[in-house]
Amino acid sequence: MALNSITVRVPAKVNLQLSVGPRESNGYHNLVSVFQAVSIFDEVTISKSHAGSGVTIAVTGDQTHGVPEDGSNLAVKAAQLIGDKFDLDVDVHIEIKKSIPVAGGMAGGSADAAATLIAMDALFRLEASREELLDLASQLGSDVPFMIAGGTAVGTGRGDQLTAALSRGTYHWVFALSTVGLSTPAVYAECDRMRAELEVAEPRVSDALMQALLTGNPTAVGEALTNDLQNPACSLRPALSLVLEVGRDYGALGAIVSGSGPTVAFLVADEEAGLDLAVALTASGVVGSVARATGPVHGARVI
Ligand code: ATP
Q: Which residues form the GHMP kinase N-terminal domain (predicted)?
């Protein structure tokens, strides 16, 4: 019997390194992005609906504020893109159960797009190759291929040319969440503004980070975390500097703004240290809410 609905679980990401090259004439920046998939998950369910009904969408869960329920949702664009490629009449309903913070620098929209590609492939038995799926993913956004791949990976180009990174062990994270998101284009614009007078080098993968991941040493990984968008994000949202400081004071091994922010990620030694830091951050009053997670985890996967 043909299946009428498929659910895919997809993780959030944190950037262990985000290095931003000079602004190109087309407005883009070459990136080196070291991604780790972490255990905060959205669930995307795609169901077949009546012929002619097109793509409909509903968003549920604890993170729905600011997520569009129309054609501008990246999941709808993903369904249409894979439909065009495989000549399908795309009459589907997409339900996104969201737990990934919205506009938080954790690639929630990209994650939902990746999940949609995997769900559509399974639902319509398209048997698309991995390369075809990754190619469609990169057309939807530079973080989308990684949300299919998961694990730990280095992204170059716009961040979408992926190579798996060798990483040992499990990493424990505490995330300080903000109720109001930051716009990724606004953070890049602030980055360009702050660097206007500077000579900016092409980005390179951090040897210190690769070595730390290879040996599975969380202290060394904590010390090697870098993000060129951290200062711009803090410039637009000065309260983030205080959040970073509070986490460091409470013994985090590393503290970094996640992607374009405003989520702040703290790497801690183990689960117990994560619990302690979560309590301390909440009690400090400088953080709205916290989430704990581990990584690396798998990418978008049918459940
Ligand atoms: P990134 O880390 O890739 O820069 P982000 O985590 O900062 O992204 P998202 O959560 O992906 O940001 O959301 C950015 C904007 O994209 C939202 O404010 C919303 O308007 C829009 N959007 C479109 N589709 C989605 C989706 N499925 N989930 C969340 N936001 C979406």
A: 73-151
What does the domain layout of the chain look like in residue ranges?
5-165+298-302, 171-294
Whether the model pTM is above 0.90: yes
Q: How far apart are CA 255 and CA 268, in angstroms?
A: 9
The pLDDT-based confidence of 1 (bands split at 50, 70, 90) is very low
Task: For the beta carbon of residue 24, count every other beta carbon within 10 angstroms.
Answer: 9
Fold of 171-294: Alpha-Beta Plaits (3.30.70)
Please state, in angstroms and as integers, the Cα–Cα distance from residue 40 to each residue in 236, 281, 284, 296, following that order. Answer: 26, 19, 24, 11
| Longest distance between any two alpha carbons in the chain, whole Å | 64
Minimal-distance CA residue to ligand 1 atom 11: 109
Q: Is 262 in the pocket of ligand 1 (CB under 6 A)?
A: no
DSSP assignments along 16-50, one per residue: EEEEEEEEPTTS-EEEEEEEEEEEEEEEEEEEE--
Cα(9) to centroid of ligand 1, in Å?
17
Q: Which two tokens stand for residue 36?
A: 């780790």
